[in-house]
Write a structure and sequence with these properties.
The chain is an alpha+beta fold. The protein has helices at 2-21, 48-59, 78-87, 99-104, 118-131, 134-139, 141-161, 176-179, 193-196, 198-203, 208-233, 243-253, 260-274, 276-291, 293-306, 322-334, 367-371, 414-431, 469-473, and strands spanning 62-67, 70-75, 169-170, 344-345, 350-352, 355-357, 362-365, 432-436, 460-464. The protein has two domains: 1-90 and 363-371, no CATH class; 97-362 and 377-473, Orthogonal Bundle (Cytochrome p450), CATH 1.10.630.10. 48% of the residues lie in helices and 8% in strands. Helix 14 crosses helix 16 (322-334). The chain is globular, with a radius of gyration of 25 Å. The N and C termini lie far apart (99 Å). One of its GO terms (biological process) is secondary metabolite biosynthetic process. Pfam families: p450.
Length: 475
């Protein structure tokens, strides 16, 4: 009997000690009915940003999900973003590992997918100081000018060769216009069935790993050939400095640290982050302008007041085109090209608000939901570029406008992206007249994917503006 009493006393002490030292975790609110193995996957429908916005309105700005084996924390308010990505920035500085990342990230050495540490800091410093600094952007302005003028030449050529009747052109017959950059996108941040249910990776039911392996090999051959070609051209005197010129110079100084794998990884990052997203934003912007002719007229007026009609605009002209820059900002608010910020992953247990977040939790911030929140943005569904004009900005937009992320893992190329998009949009408006196809509005339905494409590609009519014919012919 004494031994039994001793056993119960010992058990009580052990349980009490465990409760005192390891109290029950208070996880963020979560939808009920998580299934074994699947978790909350049954609740996930496309478009995902709208589905999770609906769930977050019911369960709060911090919402915890079990998606198969993955633990996911969904953020849907500026204060939640500030708490996690600002105050707990170090805890959420890593990236989750994925099936696609295993094949497409050069062993997670690329900037976008590498975990926080010395290697990541080195790559980040390079991009910040050598590629996206003010002086670097100025030095590379010629590259952007040449790229935009190539687009203008091709579009002008198409209108001359394929003119229909009154000289208008149906851009649906010229897929390159809004489709060229999209086709180069590599979905290296894609998460598939095997990321949530590991056994599916073993069987590779959907042949995802076979496809990714093929992409990886073809891409590597392409990049090797491209590097060899550009390396031969570095000895040729050029008027502008490209990204590869920077990398080759760094490689010459330190060949081990900046080997070809690292350079190819940086190219992957630039392609993935800067091509598809920019093309999508321009397509959304043109669609919005065609549906809002009063905004299009204001943009044309700004161009006429600041740019001579006998020349094509330059990168340096953007400082005098704040309204067109505001159109890009408002487009990014309404249709962020990546509706969720690139996922973070917690490297340790931490507390956000009053909730405990386990180590290894994937953090996704619903930028689309925050950009459409009526508590944050007056008339959030209205296309109103004026809200981004500096004269009307009365408060900080930090944590409220996050198309390029925020914190130490925010996109370092946001400034370049907005500059490229504004230059391209302004050039298209300066050189061509644009009209809708048909009498109804342009379809603004959203498609599915990691990025936010239009469900229906833009179809529009265009023709060169008479006053720009001479400049276009010499572009």
């Amino acid at each position: 009997m004494e031994l039994l009493h001793l056993f119960y006393i010992t058990l009580f002490i052990v349980v009490l000690t465990k409760l005192l030292l390891h109290p029950k975790k208070q996880l963020p609110p979560s939808p009920p009915g998580a299934l074994p193995i699947l978790g909350h996957l049954r609740l996930v429908f496309t478009p995902l940003h709208r589905t999770l916005d609906t769930l977050s309105k019911q369960y709060g700005q911090y919402m915890f999900l079990k998606l198969g084996k993955r633990k996911v924390l969904v953020l849907s308010s500026p204060s939640a973003i500030e708490e996690c990505i600002n105050k707990n920035d170090m805890a959420f500085a890593n990236r989750p590992r994925t099936v696609a990342g295993d094949y497409l990230s050069y062993d997670y050495t690329v900037l976008a997918l590498s975990n926080y540490g010395h290697h990541w800091r080195t790559l980040r410093r390079i991009t910040t100081t050598e590629i996206f600094s003010a002086s670097s952007l100025l030095a590379s302005s010629g590259v952007r000018r040449d790229a935009v003028r190539c687009l203008l030449r091709e579009l002008y050529k198409s209108t001359r060769e394929d003119a229909i009747g009154d000289g208008l052109l149906d851009t649906e017959d010229n897929k390159w216009f809004f489709g060229l950059l999209k086709d180069t996108h590599v979905p290296s941040l894609f998460m598939g069935p095997g990321d949530y249910i590991p056994i599916m990776r073993y069987f590779d039911v959907f042949k995802i790993e076979k496809i990714l392996s093929g992409i990886s090999k073809k891409r590597d051959v392409f990049f090797d050939e491209m590097l060899e070609k550009f390396r031969k051209e570095t000895s040729v005197e050029k008027n502008s400095k490209s990204m590869l010129d920077v990398f080759f110079a760094l490689q010459k100084e330190n060949p081990e640290q900046y080997n070809n794998v690292i350079i190819k990884g940086m190219i992957v990052t630039m392609f993935t982050a800067g091509t598809d997203t920019s093309a999508l934003t321009l397509e959304w912007a043109m669609s919005l302008l065609l549906n809002h002719p009063e905004v299009l007229l204001k943009a044309r007026t700004e161009l006429a007041n600041n740019i001579d009609s006998n020349r094509l605009l330059e990168d340096s002209d953007l400082a005098n085109l704040p309204y067109i820059q505001s159109i890009i900002q408002e487009t990014l608010r309404l249709y962020p090209p990546v509706p969720f910020l690139v996922p973070h992953e917690s490297s340790r247990e931490c507390t956000v608000g009053k909730y405990d977040v386990p180590s290894g939790t994937i953090l996704v911030a619903n930028a689309w939901a925050i950009h459409r929140d009526p508590k944050v943005w007056p008339e959030p569904d209205k296309f109103m570029p004026e809200r981004f004009m500096q004269s009307t900005q009365s408060e900080s937009r930090e944590f409220k406008f996050i198309p390029f992320g925020i914190g130490r893992r925010g996109c370092p190329g946001g400034g370049l992206a907005t500059r490229v998009m504004a230059l391209t949009l302004a050039s298209l408006l300066q050189c061509f007249e644009w009209e809708k196809v048909g009498d109804g509005p342009v379809d603004m339905s959203e498609g599915n994917g990691f990025t936010l494409p239009k469900a229906q590609s833009l179809e529009a009519w265009c023709k060169p503006r008479p006053e720009m014919l001479n400049a276009l012919s010499q572009a």
